Structure formats: structure tokens, C-alpha cells
């Protein structure tokens, strides 16, 4: 019995955490500390905070992976959720490892916008597209993150002649197409953008750079 107890403890999953980007939500964990633990299989359950019964996540029942997609199960984004994982090896089951409480609306990370740039003589037109959630409208298109939060675009310009690290904020607002004017012909400029959420004072990461020469 003692050996079984040791095995139970040594294969118990560690660090059970939700990771979420634009409401694409996965549960991650690390295997137990025993060397054999890498051969363990894992079983995932989830529930809304306050519910008494746990639900099995069928696609993550007896898996060897250390990640489980719970995007669909956490689609009520204002609700707080819990998840838990147990491991099994050689007929022995570990106890459950519990995640922290996770509320998608509060804790998902908002990604950067997509940008495209079109240069003209002395200006650059920037088109901005908010990141999209995995959730779909009735017609099938995915719902942009701007539907869930009051988000602003922040657009920065980098004048490569001056300093490649120096970003100047040239626009903040909700317009999806903006024009940056009074630029110098023949100069290389790069544009980056991010999403900003005033209410929670959160910013996304920067978008990838789009560079152009006028």
C-alpha cells in the first residue's frame, strides 16, 4: 500500500493553470516529479464556480498530453471556472490537482491588432483589424474582441533614420483606417500597433512591424 501511496504522490500533476489569449483557453499542467510520470495518462474535469458536480472533459480523458483545450467549456466569459487534473499509471490514480479560479473576461490576454500599411507621397494609410475571439455569430463569422471590451487602437510610428527603438504614439481611438500625414519622402518608417483597454488599463503586446519607404 505504501508503494502505491508513493506512486500516487509522485505522479500527481503539478502547476495546473489556465492560459487564455482572446478567449482561446487551454489548461496546462506539468507531470509529477517521478521519472515514470512521463508515461502517465491524464484526466481533466471542469466546473463553474459554485456548482457541486464536476464535468468530465471527454477529449481530455486518458490523454498523454499536458494541455487540454477548454475554450468551448469556458464560453460564458463572465463566469468563474475551476478545472482539475489527475494522473494514472500502472493502475494507480493520483489525487486531483486543482487550478486557481479563472474568469475569462478578467483574465484572458488580448492579442495585438493586425495592421496593413499603404504608403503614398507624404503619408501612410494604416488599416487596423482587432483580434478575433473563437466564438461565432449565427452566420458563422468569428466575433472580434471589440465586441466584448471597450478597446482602443494605439498606433506608433518608428522613424528608422532617428532611432529604431523610439516609438511615437500617433493615434489612439476606434477608427479602423487612419492616415499618418506630413512624413518625409525617401525615409523608411515602421508602424506598430496595440490594443488598449482603458477600463482595466491593460495593453496588448505590439503587433508585428510593418515597414515602408515613402
Automatic annotation (TrEMBL):
Its main location: secreted. InterPro entries: FN3_dom, FN3_sf, Ig-like_fold, Interferon/interleukin_rcp_dom, Type-II_Cytokine-TF_Rcpt. Residues 12-107 form the Fibronectin type-III domain. It comes from the Eukaryota. The keyword Secreted applies. GO terms for cellular component: extracellular region; plasma membrane. The keyword Cell membrane does not apply. It is found in: Secreted. Signal peptide: none annotated. Keywords: Disulfide bond, Receptor, Repeat, Secreted, Signal. GO terms for molecular function: cytokine receptor activity. Receptor for IL22. Binds to IL22, prevents interaction with the functional IL-22R complex and blocks the activity of IL22 (in vitro). May play an important role as an IL22 antagonist in the regulation of inflammatory responses. Belongs to the type II cytokine receptor family. This is Interleukin-22 receptor subunit alpha-2. It comes from Sterrhoptilus dennistouni. The lineage of its organism: Eukaryota, Metazoa, Chordata, Craniata, Vertebrata. The gene is Il22ra2.
